[in-house]
Amino acid sequence: QVQLVESGGGLVQPGGSLRLSCAASASSFRIYIMGWYRQVPEKQRELVARITGSGATNYADSVKGRFTISRDNAKKTVNLQMNSLKPEDTAVYYCNAYYSSYGRPSDYWGQGTQVTVSS
Length: 119
Fold this sequence. Notes:
The chain has 119 residues and is mainly beta. It contains no helices and 11 strands. Helix content is 0%, strand content 54%. Strands 2, 4, 5, 6, 9, 10 and 11 form a 7-stranded mixed beta sheet that branches. A 4-stranded antiparallel beta sheet has the order 1-3-8-7, with no helix packed on it. It is globular. The N and C termini lie far apart (40 Å).
């Protein structure tokens, strides 16, 4: 079982920055693909960014060039640096840990943190 605790959400003006952090209680943190997802009411949760244990990343097109995901395997944390924020980035952001072994996935979610971009 993996517990994920997010922090760093809040209210920011358009063009501003926020940094989200996620602390994991995984004993083998490096094996997990860590991701940030977001969700707005009445819409499906969508991938924002994810990073493998070795540091390979991918991003949603809507955040490329503005958001940066990083991880510290020793500290068991994953961060999302969000710059040039737009009102459409407003959502609840969730940290995710995913691992699959022999076709059996392990998929864990944090409780979510609200990000509001508004003037």
